[in-house]
Amino acid sequence: MAEAILITGTTGLVGYSLAQALAAQKREVVGQVRGDASRSPVRENIRWDLVRSRPVDESVLEDKKLSAVVHLAGDNVFGLWTEAKKKRIHDSRVVGTRHVAEYLAAMPAERRPKALICASAVGYYGDRADELLTESSEPGEGFLAETCVKWEIAAEAARNAGIRVVHLRLGIVLTAKGGALKSMLPAFNFGLGGKLGSGKQWFPWVAMEDVIEMILYALDHHDLSGAVNVVAPNVVTNEEFTKALGRALHRPTLAPVPAFALKMLPGDMGQEMFLASERVVPEVLQKRGFGFQFPTLEHALQHALGDR
Questions:
Q1: Is residue 299 part of a domain?
Q2: The CATH number of the domain where 68 resides is what?
Q3: 203 versus 40: which is more confidently predicted?
Q4: Whole-number Å distance between alpha carbons of 17 and 78
Q5: Distance CA 4, CA 228 (A)
Q6: Does any domain span residue 209?
Q7: Lowest-pLDDT choice from 45-59, 108-122, 209-223, 268-282
Q8: Domain span holding position 32
Q9: What is the pLDDT of residue 307?
C-alpha cells in the first residue's frame, strides 16, 4: 500500500507551494478540494467540504496509507470583517480542524497517519506591544487570538488518538505571488506606500521558502510536537518593514495611513490586522538549530521581488 501525504488547502498560497516541494522530493501527495479540482497542483484529490465533516468520496484513499496530514485550509482573513465574514474565518478553521482531527482519529489504527501538521497563526498572541513572544507565551485577546486558541484545541481528537500534532503559528508570509506583500505592491510601486499608524507595532514576517522548509522539517522530525512559531528570527516594526520595502522597490514611503482610518474598518479588523503588535520569535526552531534561508528582511524582499 502506497504511503501518501494529504494536504488540505492545496489551492492556497502555502498549500500550493508545499505540494510542489513534496512532488519535487518524489513524495506522493493527495490534495483536498471542495469542488473543482482543476486548480489543485496535485493529480489525485479528495473532494471534502471540511466544515460539513466527512469527505464526499474516499475512494482515492483506498489504496493508500496516509503517513501524515498537513492541514492548511481556511478562509482568507483579508476582506471586510462583517459578522458573516468572521463566521467563515472561524468555522473554516475551528470546525474544519475538528472534523479533520475526528476523521483521522476514527481511522483504523493501522491506517491512521502518524502526524497532523496543522496551521495556526501568530494572531494567537494578540496585541502585546514590545513583549517578546515565544511558543510558551500565553494567548492574547481579540477575535483572532480567540479563534487561534479554539483552532489549536480543535485538533485534540487527533492528539488523543496518538497522532503527533504540530501547530504552525504562521507569521506574515512574504511572496510576491500572493498574500500581504502582493497586495502592498501596487501602492508602493506608485510611491504611495507608508507606515500604518505609528509604525511602531512589531511585524512578524517569514519568507515563503522558509515556511515550506519548516513544514518539511515538521514532517520529518518525529520528536517535534506542539506549537511552532513560523516566523523569521529577525522581527521588525511596521515602520522598518515599510522603509525596507521602499528601498527594495526604489520608491519613497511618505504616505502613512493614520490609525484612526484603520480603526474605522468593521469588526475590529484595522486594530487586529494592521495595528496589533506581535514581537514573535521562533524559539523552538532556533533551539533545534533550524537553518533559515532568509533570516534578514532585506534578503527576503530581494528574493521575493526578484521572483515576480
A1: no
A2: 3.40.50.720
A3: 203
A4: 20
A5: 23
A6: yes
A7: 45-59
A8: 2-174+204-233+279-293
A9: 58
